Amino acid sequence: MLKLFFKPRFSDRIFLTYVCFGFLTLFLHRILFFYVYSYRLDEINFLLILKAFLIGFRFDFVTVSISLVGFYILSIWDTVSRYQFYRNLWVVTPLVIYPFCVLHLFADLLYFENANKHIGYEAIVFLGDLDVLIVSAWSEAPFKILSFLFLILLYILGIRFWFRKKKIGYQVNEAESNRYSMTKSILWILFFFIGLRGGPQESPLRASEAIISEDALINQIALNGIYTTINDFKSQSIPKHLKMSETDMISIVRDEIQFDGSQFLNDPNFPLLRKINERPGKKPTNVVLVIQESWTGKFVWPVSDGYWLGKEITPYYNQLAKKGHSFRKFYANGGRTSNALLSVLTSIPDRPGLTAIRTPQILSHFSAIGNIFSELGYETSFITGDDLKFDSLATILPHFGFKTLIGKEDFRKSGLYQIGAWGYDDEHLYSKAIQEMDIYQKNNKPFLMTILTMTTHYPYKVPNPKYEIFDSSVTDFDYLNTYHYSDAALEGFMKEIQKRKYFDDTLFVFVGDHTHHRYLSYYEDRMVPFLLFSPKYIKPKLDERISSQLDVLPTILGVIGRETYFSGFGKNLMAPNVKSGSTYFAYGSACGWIDEEKILYQSVDGDTQFIFQMVPPYAEDPVCNPNRTNCTNQTLKAKAFFNLSLELMNRNAIYPLEGRLRYSRK
User: Fold this and answer.
1) Where are the transmembrane segments (predicted)?
2) Which of 37, 120, 123, 187 has the smallest number of Cβ neighbours within 10 A?
């Protein structure tokens, strides 16, 4: 029946066989993985496991497509494929590679036992110690090694039998019409193209889409070691000229981020793990963290006077900032919301280029703000007017400890709100947040409420013309008008929440996620506002120290004053004698360092480096150019943060899994 509609040629039959065999191999590996590690599950949720297996099919689709698409393209050239040598390139080479793929999957199975993650870039790193690994594996599991070698032998004998019986080495593509041949080739290429994306969806498949549960093992079932290794090398490699020894990077980072009231536990497996001591005295109970979309620092007080072309863009925020603890030299560690979410919520800097949120690194275990506050007995909520599918927030945020998620779809279903240009406008987010907090207060539950605002996102449309304080003759008028609206929405929120009993015992934290990037110098493009506001507990202060989004989480923990454990690259800015005056950033294809004297931009794709002075007109520092050896301090610190942040995420060595946590918590 199949041949009536589809007449497969030799190459079609070969690749149909290889595709099916690839899927079967990865499926059997997933079953074996589940069998070996199912003991780690507290309970067997068959529906959840089935979902993980179904998602795993998509990751397998990517893996098979990456492995075979190049060979299929070679097979299209019929004229040359008549020659056996060329034909063997796309017929035999995949068969030679296959045992190495199986070996890789086998190594992944063993590697997971100690690493709690699928193998990645370590696969190549380990080749340098291949002899040691073989000896170790033989001494620990000789039966497994012998079984694997026996299977490889069976594979070779099976391939030899197949070649002889079907005369594979002598077959060539049968003749057919050019139109029919071209149609099939297009369908094959479309198949592989969809496979490379992990399906027909709008965005390519990301490792974070494997997160479907609070159980770390469930989230690993869908992945396979071949996929994670390919993804690692695609996005995580550190250039040789930027590499640093582990001892040096840990020493530099620790020295930079230490603060009074915390102690490093000197755990060799988790080098940044710290205990934060309980702070005596009165302290706030609840936390409202507002992450302000595209709030550029230059338009607000205290980064500037808050006026632009004679008009005050954010009159309410400026007054609020003068009543709280404001930071004039506060910097974003990245340039996108995904970078900010990682820095603010986990105190781990994102990597240059492709965000870790779109890589297997996001499966690492973080001491994220939601995790910490959940363990302290808090209700943890995250509200945004955007689609929670964006950057896989629907899976990542529960991984960060947030129990309640409210996004675009929830607002739409309620039927109470009108959608804006990009998502639901700020006033609606604030209104919904107050509803949720009122419920928590009624139930006598402390809460962590995180709000990611939306209206100041491109395409910059205000919900009402009354907020249009600039016309089209003003550069950036559309953005500035939405900025003004966002401030008005914030004013309505704060005035309403001041009527609540829980206002006095709540810490309000306002932080920009990144600038809007338009018409800004490299210096202005890093600066965002940061404000701590809690009139009962925090005195008004203008803080001139350099700080960044990495400091937000430890500062919140310091103000709340509960004993806990934490692992990150930031410091508590409210602690006495805290070291300050510098910070790290990574954005695009560069990482860098900012201190009171200089701002360093270091390319991670090459050895390009720029060091600018931190005084107007912010020109290149003549002391550093062309002789870099005069300015090594900034480079060393940037390299240390860059290396250690990637290393800890790659090794899943940020924070212990709950099942392995060896420290008591209160």
Assistant:
1) 15-36, 48-77, 89-112, 145-163, 184-200
2) 187
Neighbours of 191 (CB within 10 A): 17
- Cβ neighbours around 166 below 10 Å, total: 12
One domain for residues 129 and 256: no
| Bridge partners, residue 405, by sequence | 382
Sheet holding 564-567, edge to edge: 262-264, 273-276, 564-567
Question: How many C-alpha atoms does 387 have within 13 Å on its Cβ side?
Answer: 6
Contacts of 44 (CB under 8 A, 6+ apart): 38
Q: Are residues 260 and 210 in the same domain?
A: no
Q: Is 209 annotated as a binding residue?
A: no
Whether residue 56 is predicted with pLDDT greater than 60 in this model: the reply is yes
CA angle 225–230–232, rounded 5-degree value: 90
Q: Looking at the structure, tell me whether residues 130 and 247 fall in a common domain.
A: no
Q: Is 246 annotated as a binding residue?
A: no
Here the tokens at position 635 are 């480079």
Residues 6+ apart with CB under 8 A from 390: none
Point out the catalytic residue in the list 228, 296, 314, 337: 337
**CA gap 295, 511 in Å, rounded:** 8
The pTM (predicted TM-score) of the whole model is 0.76
pLDDT of residue 660: 43
Residue 293: give the domain boundaries.
243-662
Q: Is 513 annotated as a binding residue?
A: yes
311-312 vs 307-308, strand pairing mode: antiparallel
Give 98-151 pLDDT, tens digit per residue. Answer: 988 988 898 888 777 655 678 875 666 556 545 555 665 665 567 777 877 888
Tell me, yes or no, whether 347 and 417 share the same domain.
yes
CATH of the domain at 573: 3.40.720.10
Residue 138: alpha-carbon gap to chain centroid: 37
Domain shared by 23 and 55, yes or no:
yes
Answer yes or no: 337 catalytic. yes
**Residue 343 identity:** S
Q: Does residue 17 contact residue 186 with C-beta atoms inside 8 Å?
A: no
293 is in an annotated binding site: yes
Structure token pair of residue 183: 């149609």
Q: What count of other Cβ atoms lies within 10 Å of the Cβ of residue 254? A: 16
Tokens 């690994």, located at residue? 133
Q: What is the CA radius of gyration of the chain?
A: 28
**Both structure tokens of 163:** 């070649």
Give Cα separations from 5 to 12, 238, 380, 636 (angstroms).
14, 50, 56, 64
Confidence of residue 581 (pLDDT cuts 50, 70, 90): confident
C-alpha distance from residue 375 to each of 182, 620, 666 (Å): 59, 48, 9
Question: Are residues 514 and 341 in contact, defined by beta-carbon separation less than 8 angstroms?
Answer: no
Bridge partner list, 543: 327
Q: For 194-241, what is the HEC assignment?
A: HHHCCCCCCCCCCHHHHCCCCCHHHHHHCCCHHHHHHHHHHHCCCCHH
Taking the CA of residue 615 as centre, how many other CA atoms within 13 Å lie in the half-sphere pointing to its CB?
A: 2
Cα 378 from chain centroid (whole Å): 24
* Token pair recorded at residue 666: 């209160």
